[in-house]
Amino acid sequence: MSGDKPQDNGARRSQGLFRALSYRNYRLFFFGQSVSLIGTWMQQVAMSWLVYRLTGSALLLGTVGFTSQIPTFVVSPLAGVLADRWDRRRLLIATQTLAMTQAFVLSWFVLSGTVQTWHIIVLSLILGVVNGFDIPIRQSFVIEMVEERHILSNAIALNSSMVNAARLIGPSVAGLLISVLGEGACFLLNGLSYLAVLLSLAMMRIAPRHVEHKRRSVLYELREGIGYAVKFAPIRALLMLMALISLMGMPYAVLMPVFAKDVLHGGPHTFGFLMASAGVGALTGTVYLASRKNVIGLGRIIVLACALFGLGIAGFAFSKTPWLSLMLLLPAGFGAMVQVAASNTILQTIVDDDKRGRVMSFFTMSFMGMTPFGSLFAGAVAARLGAPITVQVGGVACLCGALIFSRALPGLREMVRPIYARLGIVPEVAAGIQSASEITVPPKEP
After folding, report:
1. Which domain holds residue 114?
2. What is the pLDDT of residue 209?
């Protein structure tokens, strides 16, 4: 069907920084998840501070980071298969309910004064299992909320901006609450914050998704998804770069309490401000991505963002003064989030719909699943060589990854070009990873 009104609506949706919010379902998700994510960041900061307060051990910080994230590496592939088979909204309601329960149990242990280190490790493991299912399902659910592919990049960028706005607010609030009321208050408020996202999911009106039932085993579909991701070089390259950054670079955040307390000689306020500074940089990066009109040049942006992240954390590791550390975490946060969100955007736009859940589960494995190995490695190395040297090594590894990806970029552009041309996601874009100088813009359709 055609007509003036649908065309006008489409034109309005294609413009503006917040164009994905023109969809009711995405708008509900955005505001509900925003509240919940503030609580999530509060819990993450409070958890790290609680562990370091109880043990004073960088190794145990790495261990808790490992146990909270290793399940993502194990269960995400299964979650991807389920996301391609079942109703994603119902799956999300289940995972969010379980995460809320975990937060309430943790708050009870802390507020009752009975918390022990093994409680934290076990509950972190449980939350890791829940997140291992939740993240790939939530990533693949985005397309159902915005419906049109040309809005997808804006929706992903806004989703990242939501995460980083919460990352800015949550640690700052947590630092104040820990000083006044203790860590238990952060865990309790996080549990209550899940009510917002559960309500938003319940209020959505999602059209039934057609799923072709072929009575194949979970193992068969998992092998099919792995083969699809491994054989197509652009997907493989993006996943490998993401895995490297998560393994070597992202664990700098696990060691943040060590920098706050032992390197910069501060307290929970210092810790909160350091996390918030990285959050400001990341939020700036997502606003930049959301303001982009299309996906031209994202491959080159990934290279630059990866290099910027590596330089930022390497410089942070050398710093001995709070103000310089805060300044260096700004570009680090910017680079990390731009690289992650841009990679997510390209993957979501080139993947086949019937394999979206599985590919996003592999993205989750690369992004979240590799981080626990990095956390454990960083904790062990920091215990021997110190946190600064550990983070410096991670920064250099990120710079090497950016260089290798940049050398492969011309070939990846050629492979992506026909997919974007066939899908017609944005008429003037011939390739999602190619540079603007290589594109000839055709005349607009009448």
Report:
1. 21-202+218-435
2. 61
